[in-house]
Amino acid sequence: MTKDTAPQLHLDNQLCFPVYTLSRLITQAYQPLLKALGLTYPQYLVMLVLWEADEKGELPVQVRFITEKLLLDTGTVTPLLKRMEEAGLLQRRRSSVDERVVEIYLSEQGRSLRSQAETVPFELLCRTGVDPKRGIAMRDEMLAMIRVLQQS
């Protein structure tokens, strides 16, 4: 006979587990799409930040800008940027105003990769079978939760 005195501790009753599992599965679904581009999922996220900044005429960006956008620390982002620079996707340069600040520029190779990546979001959505309106609603719910958790 088992006691059911703490159902809040059952795996099926946790919010974190389906979010964690979904994150892993989405990342796995991206892998074949990104492999064709020569990118890992974290590199893809960095490229999304850089492509958007480029589109807005906001390049170069500081490393801090990338860490804030991706909610990652510099200890995670710096080695990632170094590998991306070695792959020819971007350039890292010390600021001429403040040498403590590293600025990130897109290389021509990184910029041209954008056109190849344009189909990735649509292809991923097709793989999930999720209705686009439902996908947008789910994303908005998750973003709202992220904002709440960031403030607490």
UniProtKB/TrEMBL annotation:
Q: Which InterPro entries match?
A: HTH_MarR-typ (IPR000835), MarR/SlyA-like (IPR039422), Transc_reg_Sar_Rot_HTH (IPR055166), WH-like_DNA-bd_sf (IPR036388), WH_DNA-bd_sf (IPR036390)
Q: Is Cell membrane there in the keyword field?
A: no
Matching PANTHER family: ORGANIC HYDROPEROXIDE RESISTANCE TRANSCRIPTIONAL REGULATOR, TRANSCRIPTIONAL REGULATOR, MARR FAMILY
The cross-references to SMART domains, in alphabetical order and at most eight, read: HTH_MARR (SM00347)
Domain HTH marR-type spans what residues? 12-152
Q: What is this protein called?
A: MarR family transcriptional regulator
Query: One Pfam match, by short name?
Result: Staph_reg_Sar_Rot
Q: Where in the cell is it found?
A: Cytoplasm
Q: Which UniProt keywords apply?
A: Cytoplasm, DNA-binding, Transcription, Transcription regulation
- Could you tell me which Gene3D superfamilies the record lists for this protein? Winged helix-like DNA-binding domain superfamily/Winged helix DNA-binding domain
> Transcription as a keyword?
yes
